[in-house]
Structures are given as structure tokens and as C-alpha cells.
Amino acid sequence: EAIDFPVRISAASSPVALGWHISESATTEYSLVVTNKQTGKTNTRLMTGEGNVILWNPDISEVKIHVSGNLAPSQFALHQNYPNPFNPSTVIRYQLPVNSYVTLKVFDLIGKEVKRLFDGVQEAGYYTVPFVADHLANGVYFYQLTARQIPTRMDRGNGQAGTFTSVQKMLVLK
After folding, report:
1. 11-to-18, 83, 144 alpha-carbon distances in Å
2. Which residues, 6 or more positions from 60, have their beta carbon under 8 angstroms from its beta carbon?
């Protein structure tokens, strides 16, 4: 398995320093991939331990981190949406360490459900869900992730399957 994470660089001038600290993993490999917009040529650098690189070429069109190997997260998590506050759209990210039945809902300040973003089965992995709030008024809203582990043959009857629930706050500003 492999996944690419784009790196957005917002800088008024060159050069830009990009640093990292990668925990050692026997099953996952991280690479920095930089593409030249003039030639289309890519330059790839393996990212291990602590390191950094200086990006100074104004002809860079794309920077991404390529991750390959075992990509399943080790725990459930619901991350803070970005951007926050937002108008009119934001992105909600979460991770599942096991196959789960997932519901992702948005609630207003008094607890009324205003949007169901996802309701179904998802495999273990990392997820990104866009949320457009153009139909909502300014204010504070909450999003809730509930993930119920789908029992495997090993789990059935011994109570090992569980439920994860987490809530985060977000702010719509128009």
C-alpha cells in the first residue's frame, strides 16, 4: 500500500526549509518527492530519523510525502478540522485501526443533528471528509465520530469488539 500527502508551502520568498522527525518503523517508508514544473522531473529523498531539506528552486510545482508499507493506524482518533474557523468549507480527518461501522455527524449548539457526513462500514485506515456549511448560520458546531469495531471471528462471544466516540468543536464564520 502507498499514499501521497501533498505539502502546501506558503512562503513569500525562497528558500524554504522543510524538516522532519520520523520514528523508526520496520514496515513503513517515507519519501520526500519534489517535482520541477519546467521539466516535470521528480527528485525523491528517503526520509529517516531527523532531517531537513532546503527548497530553493522557484520552479518547484509539487512537494509531497510518499508513504508506503503498513499504513494502518494503531489507534482510533478524530482530529481537529482544518481550517477552523471556516467559511464555507473545512476538512475533517479521522483514523480507524480496525474495520468499523462509522457514523460522522455534525450538531448545532443545542445538540440537534444538522448533517450526517458518513454512515456505513469503513476499513482500517486514514480518512478525510470535506464539510460545506454554506447552509448553516454563523456559530459553534460540533462533529462526532462513532466507530464500532466490526467483530472478527476471534472477537465473537468474548466481548473484545468495542466502540470509540469522540467529539470536536468547530466554528463557522461568514
Report:
1. 12, 18, 34
2. 34, 35, 36, 37
More confident residue, 122 or 15: 122
Contact of 58 with 148, CB cutoff 8 Å: no
Q: What angle do CA 107, 130, 100 make, to 5 degrees?
A: 75
**pLDDT: is 150 or 13 the higher one?**
150
- What's the mean pLDDT in 57-74? 81
CB 87 within 8 A of CB 173: yes
Residues 174, 165: Cα–Cα separation, whole Å:
29
Q: How far apart are CA 48 and CA 31, in angstroms?
A: 8
Percent of the chain's residues with pLDDT above 90: 52
Cα–Cα dist 70/81, whole Å? 25
Predicted confidence at residue 2, as pLDDT, reads: 79
| Distance (Å, whole) CA 20 – CA 163 | 33
Give the pLDDT confidence of 146-165 residue by residue, as tens digits: 999 988 765 555 555 689 99
For the chain, the residue count is 174
pLDDT at 81: 95
d(CA 130, CA 132): 7
Cell 527528485, located at residue: 43
